Amino acid sequence: MSPAPNLPLAPPSVHRRALLTWLGVFPVITLVQWIIGPHVAHWPLVARTFHLTAPAVPTAVAFVVPAINRFVARYTHR
To answer: Other CB atoms closer than 10 Å to residue 25's CB: what's the count?
Structure first.
């Protein structure tokens, strides 16, 4: 028996959300590191981390993770 169409779906488990978030954040951070890494390699660790995460985290949170969540929801909530 499937749930009624008007009932909201249960949110994914914390483990699934963590995995999906990691799947979205990892490639963005890797890409940004690949692009800016050679230019900031001699900077102090905190400055490098700041300049790496400043573009990566908002991009991942605003675009990549929601897209992954929509993709997964399309196939898991049929």
So the answer is: 18
